[in-house]
Task: structure prediction
Amino acid sequence: MSDMTAITTILKQILNGLQSGSIYALIALGYSMVYGIIMLLNFAHGDIIMVGAYLAWLCMVRFALNPALAVAAAVAGCTALGMLIEKAAYTPLRSSPRLSLLITAIGVSYLLENTFQLIFGAGAKTVPPFFNAKNLSFGGVVLSSNAIVTIIAAAVCMALLTLLVQKTKMGKAMRAVSEDMGAAQLMGISINRTISFTFAVGSALAGIGSVLYCTAYPQADPMMGSMLGLKAFVAAVLGGIGSIPGAMIGGLAIGLAEALVSAAGLSTWKDGVVFAILIIVLVVKPTGILGRSLNEKV
Amino acid sequence: MTLLKVENINVYYGNIHAIHDVSFEVAEGEIVSLIGANGAGKSTILKTISGLLRTKTGAITFKGENISAAAPHLIVNKGIAHVPEGRRIFLKLTVEENLEMGAYTRRGAEVPEAVEAVFSRFPRLKERRRQVAGTLSGGEQQMLAIGRALMSKPPLMMLDEPSMGLAPLLVEQVFEIIKELNGSGTTILLVEQNASMALSIANRGYVLETGRIALSAPAKELLENDAVRRAYLGS
Ligand SMILES: Nc1ncnc2c1ncn2[C@@H]1O[C@H](COP(=O)(O)OP(=O)(O)OP(=O)(O)O)[C@@H](O)[C@H]1O
Ligand SMILES: [Mg+2]
Result:
């Protein structure tokens, strides 16, 4: 029977890996899309997830609203916040050096973390479950329903995003702007609207990621976004920053890598392995798995 | 009737004063050519008209409306298409997607109709419609750049060195296309290194020297002007 247990453990870890990987992928998409369009590493992106978790908590605990409304509020709130940050903090710096933008992003991140700490305190708030589903069991193998819901929801989001980017007029405009902003303007594309839309989509995905994250780790705390954001950032770099399929692959790869490390009984090394991956990617192939080559832009 | 009027514009790159008090006009139905040496400021003028750069003083009027402060995407909407220097097609988008971007300001059934119209003018592009534009040859890329600009059905089309980097046969083809476009009602503002070709199809020309208009005359006269011949026509 020990073979059976080993297989069960491995299956469970793979499922765990896909679960956290799906969440990393959703968040990594926001990093990658924003980088693709304005060459900004938006370090405030992780904190949007934290805000989403607090919104869910507020809705369900403070205002006793139903979970569906809490999900809607978290996603809508994250979307609006992402657009607001872009308009207030990044638009005025559109023609400034990249470094000013990067420093501003870090500033926005600290601002969000400290504002939420001020309002809600440093302690964690418990986010109640959004749904009550029984875990599935197949011949003695129990699969977490949270994991399955997360993986399916993320897959649906990524499929919709791919359709949006490949097939819609706005999606094509996003790709055009990310390739050549000047030429895109000459086509009649509004740069401001396209960038704003990109932030909206990236932040909405972060909102969904935030809700899914809370199904696994039901807590909101002011600093939760920084580690989560950092790992998603590593996922985006691994996949090739700026690449949408890259962010998806990178996210899943990071989730699976963490799970495998845990399965090997080294779960204290989980975070270390993620950053080791970052260093290896930066040394061996800085453009990531699917990244554009650095000399492509002439 | 005057379609485009540029009056005393001054354009700067930071502290560099690139365009000095330049004025010229383009009448409806004309081909007007802007010639000048490298760095004279030809591209700068086109970018200023399309709103990518701003003039510090002076005015640009299109169809009687001052457009010198309008955003580039709105200027396209008003009817000016700009085929930029170096083509600047979207290399990662397909041929068809590039054309759709050219029609960004238009909606509905007009777009597929305009795509078909471009394909019938450039059958080569039709064969390659699903191909990523980066895989096209230089000549095909230039066709795509012109086709893309046609998608907005512009009353005025500005072309910045459309013959650059093309083999002689293709250069002739490009100039044929420009003449045809003009014949079907598009007004053309043409910037060219290939001054003799440009002047041979143009109605009028302006000679630009270090950011200033040095000469303006009917194209035929410029072709026969000794100073122009020595400086720009290599004879
Ligand atoms: N982004 C820029 N920053 C600073 N100076 C610039 C910039 N772009 C152009 N210039 C300068 O402005 C002047 C005019 O340049 P412009 O590109 O308009 O010339 P051009 O006539 O189009 O030349 P070419 O035939 O080589 O294309 C040049 O002296 C050029 O160095
Ligand atoms: Mg030029």
